[in-house]
């Protein structure tokens, strides 16, 4: 908890008891695309940004990202956070070993970032992430069409979420 200083943004956390276990949510906010997570964090009194492309109303000193299963989704999320973080913000990444976080060091390097392992416990890893987020590729939506009940439907998806095939 000593790493979490200033205004903290939790990014795509799990739907669990974390918001209730934090000592104080005065300086904590949450960005999520999951309605269950939104509800939990709002009930705990936190500011919640619930949108595919959020409009952050403040800048954060610290961000804690929960490692997604999709590497493409990670790039898009980091790109979104670029304007929401102060220039000297601390960025941390946490995830389950079985969820792919062990590959973060190599993945970060390919993106021009550096991931440094800080801790591990209960099959999870805690990393510090540094580098220039402005150099990341732009976030784009995938679009594809399908027919549902004889009606055309256009579907938009964030990178790494839906496979158009």
Average pLDDT over all residues: 86
Largest sheet: 7 strands, mixed
Distance between the termini: 42 Å
Oligomeric state of this protein: single chain
Overall spatial form: globular
Task: Describe the structure concisely.
With 165 residues, the protein is α/β, with parallel strands linked by helices.
Task: Please give the structural blueprint.
Blueprint: E1 8-11, H1 18-21, E2 28-32, H2 35-43, E3 47-50, E4 60-66, H3 71-81, E5 85-96, H4 104-110, E6 113-121, E7 124-131, E8 142-148, E9 151-157
Parallel strand pairs: 1-2, 1-4, 2-3, 4-5
Antiparallel strand pairs: 5-7, 6-7, 8-9
Polypeptide structure, described:
By secondary structure, the chain is of the alpha/beta class. The chain has helices at residues 18-21, 35-43, 71-81, 104-110; strands at 8-11, 28-32, 47-50, 60-66, 85-96, 113-121, 124-131, 142-148, 151-157. The protein has one domain (8-138): Rossmann fold (3-Layer(aba) Sandwich).
